[in-house]
Amino acid sequence: MGCESTKSTNFVIANRYLYTLQLSYYNNQTISIINNSKSIITKIPDTGALFNDSSSPANSALIEHIKHGCANNMGTTTESFDLLITKKLASLWTVKQTIKGEGGYGYIISVPGLNENGKDEKFKLRTSNCFLHGLFKGFLIEIEHLDDEIHQDDNLERNGLIVKFTNSINKIKSLIDLYKFPEGNLCFNVLNETKLDYLSDLCQQYCDALQF
């Protein structure tokens, strides 16, 4: 019988990419993507309103966290989770980009002639001036096809979801051709094809459009 001594080595897989998106029309909310595969959505709450209405379970849980010393915007500290990640833990990331979308306008429009059954198609449009670490990076037009069928059926199987998503992309392309939008990068990648998440996918598309 023989005995062999071995040394154990722990390998830590580094987080390579961190992209964060802050949009002026989502006040105090930050969308973060890690390694183009995971997303975290954080929001600085209005803690004054929380203590005035502590009846909901979500508010009660958050109040308990605040009472135990979590950062909040009531006292001298306003450190948010995204600030902790992007500033104090910056050395964890090989590439770290922070995008801010400011200004712009929002529209909801109905467009005839894009639907074969004669019904109008509805779209939500937003414009945004994008800044990367304070420097102007580009002007983005955000287009969302308002497909009621997708929102009504949360249990669409993967194939059905892909068909609906592809149909929405084609409608957006038709809208761009119809109104002759300026040429640019049309980006519609998502983090997970089987589970669409509006804010996470939006951050992914902003990164693609700005060519990160």
TrEMBL record:
<comment type="subunit">
    <text>Component of the Mediator complex.</text>
</comment>
<dbReference type="GO" id="GO:0003712">
    <property type="term" value="F:transcription coregulator activity"/>
</dbReference>
<dbReference type="Pfam" id="PF08612">
    <property type="entry name" value="Med20"/>
</dbReference>
<keyword id="KW-0539">Nucleus</keyword>
<comment type="function">
    <text>Component of the Mediator complex, a coactivator involved in the regulated transcription of nearly all RNA polymerase II-dependent genes. Mediator functions as a bridge to convey information from gene-specific regulatory proteins to the basal RNA polymerase II transcription machinery. Mediator is recruited to promoters by direct interactions with regulatory proteins and serves as a scaffold for the assembly of a functional preinitiation complex with RNA polymerase II and the general transcription factors.</text>
</comment>
<protein>
    <recommendedName>
        <fullName>Mediator of RNA polymerase II transcription subunit 20</fullName>
    </recommendedName>
</protein>
<keyword id="KW-0805">Transcription regulation</keyword>
<keyword id="KW-0804">Transcription</keyword>
<dbReference type="InterPro" id="IPR013921">
    <property type="entry name" value="Mediator_Med20"/>
</dbReference>
<dbReference type="GO" id="GO:0006357">
    <property type="term" value="P:regulation of transcription by RNA polymerase II"/>
</dbReference>
<keyword id="KW-0010">Activator</keyword>
<comment type="similarity">
    <text>Belongs to the Mediator complex subunit 20 family.</text>
</comment>
<dbReference type="GO" id="GO:0016592">
    <property type="term" value="C:mediator complex"/>
</dbReference>
